[in-house]
Automatic annotation (TrEMBL):
This is DeoR family transcriptional regulator. It holds the Pfam family DeoRC. Residues 3-58 form the HTH deoR-type domain. GO terms for molecular function: DNA binding; DNA-binding transcription factor activity. Keywords: DNA-binding, Repressor, Transcription, Transcription regulation.
Amino acid sequence: MLKATRQDALLRQLESAGSIGAAEAAEHLGVSEDTVRRDLRELEAAGTLQRVHGGAIPRATPPASYAQRARAAQPGKDSIAQRAAALACDGQLLFLDGGSTALNVARSLSPALHATVVTNAPAVAALLIDHPGVTVYLAGGELNKDLGVTLGSDTTRFLGSFRADISFIGVCALDPDAGLTIPSPQELATKRLMISQSTLVVALADARKLGHAFPYVVAPADAVTDLVTDSEAPKQQLAAYRRLGINIHQ
């Protein structure tokens, strides 16, 4: 079988099944697993998929800018934010990172809540100015306007001064094998720090972000303690996250 034909078959399988198992694909195509793995490496280099242990999954589509996401109507993200905000309790210290869903979590915090929020997202801090019971700490640093967050050594040094009960992490892509991944390296340091400095790590991800991957790994999937997602996420897909010990809030 010609390489182009073989790789086209792999991409069709990825589109129809949502994943590729190297062993199963080799048997189906009548070639060796080494041949399939070489094909997957080439397809990954071309940007058409993301390799994971034992095979491959779709590469996620890069998200829109922060301003575009904040303006867009997002009823699914609103419901995720409301469910996530209900996890916060009085007396807790909460990390909230950037992203439109995290902003909605801030908006959804109960007016009766008495807690502390630490964030590197100016929009989150601004939204909580009028909250009567929430103390807000905003990390300084250079503002990345595309991401809507502050970044750099000043930011991470400030965030490292806190230990959170819960970190609410906006997710670009989450896969049981590939982990929590993002499309560019700028936010690696801040997201990793928030995760490492928190007792509970709550990933905020609608169904479209599950089972996909970007090139930059923030953390393995089992670093997440809780996943808040929407009703579109299939039960079979969520079972893989439950096997990692992740609590699902749907």
